[in-house]
Amino acid sequence: MAASSVVCRLRYRGLRGLGRFWFGLEPQTQGRFTSTASAQKENTTAKAAKESKTFQAIQEERREQAERSVLISCPSKINEKKFLDYLSKHGTINKHFFYNSYGAYAVVEFSSRESIASLKESINIPAVEHEAAVPFKSRLLSFKWPGSQSSSHPMPKFKVQSPPSINEINQLLSEKDSIDEQLQCLTEALELTEENVSLRFLVCSLLRDITGAYFPECIIRPFGSTVNSFGKLGCDVDMILDLEGIYATSQKKGSGLSLEYQVKRGASERAVTQSILSVIGKCVDQFGPGCVGVQNILQARCPLVRFSHQPSGFQCDLTANNRVAMKSSELLFLYGQLDPRVRHLVFGVRCWARVHSITSSIPGAWITNFSLTVMVVFFLQQRNPPILPTLDRLKELAGPSDKCVIEGNDCTIVSDLSKITLQQNTDTLEKLLQEFFEFYGNFPFNKASINIRKGKEQTKPETTALYIQNPFETTLNISKNVNATQLERFVALCRESAWLLQQKEILNRSSDSPWGFAALLLPSVTSGAGVKSRRKRKLEPASSRIKNLLDSLKIKGGETVAKKGSANSSS
């Protein structure tokens, strides 16, 4: 979702299995991509610890951590030691980090909620001149430092929140020795950091402080890229106002006398949702510090509230009771944990698609990231042997506690990854990337649909350009928005990219030019790739622009050899 309330467009570095922690990030490009041996060791330890937990357990742990955290606006030149000493008077600090977004901010996690209560007792409502302050006591605070600060003390390290530029990515990839290394490096450069994910959960928790005034038992849950392990730096934050717990506790049947709450009634569940979101949107706009640009988009198929959260830099979308979307997030998370190649391939394909405008942050006829990810999953189910199991297989492995039916849709999947036995497939990432492009460059989109529940092509039930069955709401097409022109552009780019990966000039590492996967990101490869006809093309050079690219690589390669030769002769 691109526009509603709590979908935040924070630029964050993805996390592997929601368990990676990126240590020692610096604003400089070089620092952006380096890590120490000790950090790598801690990453491995954190990942192993997370993998023993279910998706739900990880989300609950993060939510509980967020409720023990505060977000503080700080002076740009802050004495970190004095800052922490002051806060430590109220309790033990588990962890903290600094970042920049419309100023300097710190996220501080205490070891207990009692520390938050103690801290709040010492906080003042600011006195403002010529205006009046809304006395809403949130956990978004400002740290005031009287007098001037000395610049002699060491500055805290600010965690990077923005993604690398395409030039930085190309430079980084060109230094690797194989396409496999390039895709692994790309994932690490774009994936969410532990800090980014913590900040996202904290923003959800801050919003829950507002909604809790009306619905004390509600929960604001992030879904989509924030939690499915495929989030990249810069993606929005999607949130759900979960009222299901309130309904569940009210359905207890007892014998004899009982009491019921008196409630307002609406014409339909949709009308009630619209009414609730309308009020929440108004409260966020009027009372939510740092929340700007609030829009109530209530007539959409899935009503939502959209806003920007300036202190975090996130663009946010808030919906209500969208439990199927949460289950889809869990499904993608599960697939991402089964084999590391899944995440590397998804990050690579998504990056390639975004560079060439196959996907877009603007709603329209483009293929969405969710659709593209499902296409990667389907392709991996088609391998021989398969790399990923079908959704039906995940349902078969589910235990009684995994049973889940939402609005008549069977959303049951296994939560214990140890129950899943994978077949031995040793395909390299380079081979998978090449054959992904070949697979969809020749896929019979005119008659077949994509179905990850069955793991095989099925006849399209309707005449849309692209039909990808919703994994859980099986009567819906998640790619219904895609038109024929955009699908043809995707197919044409797949064929050209598949052909390029067959050329030795592309596969040979060059010190002067992007090679391998980096070569697929060059604008010259696909400039003017609009489809002029719907006739199927073979896997061969589609235009002179590809030949020109290869010629340039040959020339540069020859120049490099010539330079080395002249250098040797002169020495």
From TrEMBL:
Q: Where is the RL domain?
A: 54-122
Q: Which GO terms describe its molecular function?
A: metal ion binding; poly(A) RNA polymerase activity
Q: Provide the Poly(A) RNA polymerase mitochondrial-like central palm domain boundaries.
A: 179-337
Has the keyword Nuclease been applied to this entry? Answer: no
Q: Which InterPro entries match?
A: MTPAP-like_central, NT_sf, PAP_assoc, RL
Query: What are the required cofactors?
Result: Mg(2+); Mn(2+)
Q: Is Transferase included in the keywords of this UniProt record?
A: yes
Domain PAP-associated intervals: 431-475
Query: Mind listing the GO biological process terms from this record?
Result: RNA 3'-end processing
Keyword set, alphabetical order: Coiled coil, Magnesium, Metal-binding, Transferase
One GO location term (cellular component): mitochondrion
Domain of life where this protein originates = Eukaryota
Q: What is this protein called?
A: Mitochondrial poly(A) polymerase
Lineage, top ranks: Eukaryota, Metazoa, Chordata, Craniata, Vertebrata
